[in-house]
Design goal:
This protein is of the alpha/beta class. The chain has 16 helices and 19 strands. Bound molecules: ligand NAX, adenosine-5'-diphosphate and potassium ion. It catalyses: (6R)-NADHX = (6S)-NADHX; (6S)-NADPHX + ADP = AMP + phosphate + NADPH + H(+); (6R)-NADPHX = (6S)-NADPHX; (6S)-NADHX + ADP = AMP + phosphate + NADH + H(+).
């Protein structure tokens, strides 16, 4: 068993692949082995989370997830703990494995109750796992509400009940703020839904136990969890030309800040030279707080050979420059208003596709609403399956797509499984942090990183800066994020 951190890369498997792996493992092992291993692992983690617990409440559901809970209860009782089990359903309908574990819990002297204990030091959610098919209701919903409203830690078994393990969509209580420590112990495979959309809030800290079955995980991963990128050392004899030029195009009237943020981020991410082409004709000729940025009139910038970051604060004015940007930029990041312009213009879409066909790298950085506009969908439709939405955009336009939000998804147009980023937090939910990300990706492209790697690395670093933000420092702003340090 080990804790999943943002430093480690890992393969993710959807429910269908997990079922195949489970079948392969179960058929090679003596009956009941997997559930015994799962229950023992759950009991061990429960003891580590609440070593002095007097009462551990274990809520068990009607399938094998409930079986894991019965098994954990038996193991805890054997170790001198006092688990109280509530069981949601009719014993006669339990699958065979779960029935055997129920018997083992009874034999161990576990207390069974019809209602949750009045106080408990840890709650274990063993109601629904990967077999969840509809929103929890009745006693199940009441028990979930009860455990999540309590100040005691909640340990979810395999998957937080009601969370779609493939998509990270939660059947109910989508905006519920965690009242306490949350952890999820997931078995056999890591599931994508634990790491994106509502998954991160629902799961809390993710622990993984392969139940000794990694040899059976001979499946193609559905997605991958990004790990820490390799630091690319700089050679002594390098010079500013070695790290490439970035041109930011944006900053229409009243929105110069967005382009300056992207420029600042590119600079601090290590680009050799950064030009900021502003669309506002009345913009100041220099940013005295960042004199390294070379400010230009966007229309006068020569883009040949450049890595271009286009759209930050671009307003409607960015539209007229897009045909030149799409045909000239050596590498390109399209953000914000550039994406909105492309979403409503088939000729720009055709140009974008042509770039991909010509082998010119492009990264799109939509948030869910921008992605929805590009796909002709709704924000809800995009969020309902973020992996699929990112993949659809990447293959439709022949680009790398960075679908932003909690658990940013990075997909490319080829066969590679998409990546889910594991850094970042809600400190980033403040205006301008997307402009900063676009600038960081631009810098990585200017350093000649392949587009998919550039996007994965920059997204990871962007979230990492937010994760390392000191709790006692001033709140993160986009400007300080770009400079990578609190003011
Ligand atoms: N079979 C085994 O040996 C193993 C099973 N494992 C556990 O088994 C789980 C999968 O087991 P199952 O396939 O039985 O699936 P679940 O235990 O997730 O639940 C399936 C059952 O819940 C019902 N159900 C679904 N949604 C419901 C709702 N909203 N309200 C009420 N009932 C609902 C279904 O009709 C079905 O009876 C995994 O998540 C994992 O916890 C793992 O421990 C690995 C080993
Ligand atoms: N709750 C969150 N958890 C993780 N990342 C977040 C969260 N909220 C925002 N972000 C990140 O912050 C950035 C916001 O970008 P965007 O929505 O384009 O904002 P803006 O247009 O104001 O710059 C994205 O990289 C997004 O992934
Ligand atoms: K569960």
């Amino acid at each position: 068993m080990h804790r999943i951190t943002s430093a480690s890369a890992a393969d993710l498997f959807d429910i269908a692949a997990t079922r195949r792996i489970e079948q392969a493992a179960a058929s090679a092992l003596p009956p009941h082995t997997l559930m015994q291993r799962a229950g023992l692992a759950a009991a061990r983690l429960a003891m580590a989370l609440a070593p002095h617990a007097r009462t551990i409440w274990i809520a068990c559901g009607p399938g094998n997830n409930g079986g894991d809970g019965f098994e954990a209860a038996a193991q805890l009782r054997h170790r001198g703990f006092f688990p109280v089990v509530t069981f949601v359903d009719d014993e006669g309908r339990l699958p065979a494995d779960a029935k055997a574990s129920l018997q083992r819990a009874r034999d161990a002297g576990v207390t069974f109750a019809s209602a949750p204990p009045s106080s408990f030091e840890l709650a274990m959610d063993a109601l629904l796992g990967i077999g969840s098919t509809r929103p929890p209701s009745g006693a199940m919903a009441e028990w979930l509400a009860r455990m999540h409203a309590s100040a005691s830690p909640v340990l979810s078994i395999d998957v937080p009940s009601g969370l779609d393990a493939d998509t990270g969509m939660r059947a109910s209580n989508p905006n519920q703020a965690p009242a306490s420590v949350r952890a999820t112990l997931t078995f056999l495979t890591l599931k994508p839904g634990l790491f994106t959309a509502q998954g991160r809030d629902a799961a809390g800290t993710v622990w993984f136990d392969d139940l000794g079955c990694s040899a059976f995980a001979q499946e193609r991963p559905t997605a991958r969890l990004a790990g820490a990128p390799d630091i690319q050392p700089r050679t002594h004899a390098s010079h500013k030309g070695s790290y490439g030029d970035v041109a930011v195009i944006g900053g229409a009237s009243g929105m110069a800040g967005a382009a300056l943020l992207a420029g600042s981020a590119a600079l601090h991410a290590g680009a050799g030279r950064v030009f900021v082409g502003l669309l506002d004709p009345r913009a100041a000729p220099v940013d005295t707080s960042q004199p390294e940025l070379m400010l230009r009139d966007a229309h006068a910038l020569d883009l040949a050979g450049m890595t271009v970051v286009c759209g930050c604060g671009g307003g409607d004015a960015v539209r007229e420059l897009l045909p030149r940007v799409l045909s000239t930029a050596a590498a390109l990041v399209l953000d914000a208003d550039a994406l909105n312009a492309i979403a409503v213009d088939p000729s720009l879409q055709a140009q974008l596709v042509a770039r991909g066909q010509a082998g010119a790298p492009t990264v799109l950085t939509p948030h869910p609403l921008e992605a929805a506009r590009l796909l002709g969908d709704t924000t809800g439709g995009v969020q309902a399956n973020r992996l699929a939405a990112a993949r659809a955009l990447a293959s439709r336009f022949g680009v790398v797509t960075v679908l932003k939000g909690s658990g940013t998804v990075i997909a490319d147009a080829g066969d590679e499984p998409p990546v889910i980023n594991s850094t970042g937090n809600a400190r980033l939910a403040t205006a301008g942090t997307g402009d900063v990300l676009a600038g960081m990706i631009g810098a990585a492209l200017a350093m000649r990183r392949p587009a998919f790697e550039a996007a994965c690395e920059a997204v990871w670093q962007h979230g990492r800066i937010a994760d390392l933000w000191p709790a006692d420092a001033a709140p993160l702003t986009a400007g300080s994020l770009a400079r990578r340090a609190p003011d």
